[in-house]
């Protein structure tokens, strides 16, 4: 369970998060955290992981305040957006390196090596891999430990169709196992297929949190993509706050 209360963060004069309140406590729930570039999604994720220190507010994981703590991260499978690895290492060496860091936890690397057909690449240097193969390694490293909480940042970047199928199956499996999954993506069809709920961030504030159906109903649209477009084009829920001109520009970055 994750509880976030009045989370705020600024970088210099730029206020990135403005008193965010969120709770993720439903086992088997996949929540898509959406918003245009610069909306605060990455800062929110980094704060959850302890990579950014908030200016104010509280983050709790399983009712434990995470500030100044690190052990809670062992319960999180985190997939970063960019697969940045030491390019001189081989895939096998990187997997062994991660296993050494997480010594004492049961790894499932063989399953993910088979699932994403990484066997032919194990002795290749990471700097020589294609972007799609690097992303498969990224997913394998993130998910090869059985953690109750997944945080997946743009997980499908560069994946081929077969790998996409396997990824969707993994998320459905995680849902069936009662894991809590947070995912950021710009692919609305993926949100439609795998997510139960949506959190929509804009300019550091939450402008929607609820089910996929509630999002569609509220904006009188048949798809998540059109509902989000309705928000970004300056719908009624934003015009009262004076965002309409800025939202028009932000829509171009989605």
What does this structure look like?
The chain is of the alpha/beta class. The chain has a single domain, classed as P-loop containing nucleotide triphosphate hydrolases (Rossmann fold), CATH 3.40.50. It is built from 10 helices and 10 strands. It has helices at 41-48, 91-101, 109-115, 131-143, 161-176, 188-194, 212-218, 224-232, 236-239, 244-251; strands at 2-11, 14-24, 30-34, 56-61, 64-65, 76-79, 149-153, 180-184, 197-202, 205-211. The chain has a 6-stranded mixed β-sheet with strand order 6-7-8-3-9-10, with helices on both faces. The longest helix is centred in the middle third of the chain and has 16 residues, at 161-176. The protein is globular, with a radius of gyration of 19 Å.
List keywords for this structure.
single chain; 254 residues; alpha/beta; Rossmann fold; six-stranded mixed beta sheet; four-stranded antiparallel beta sheet; disordered C terminus
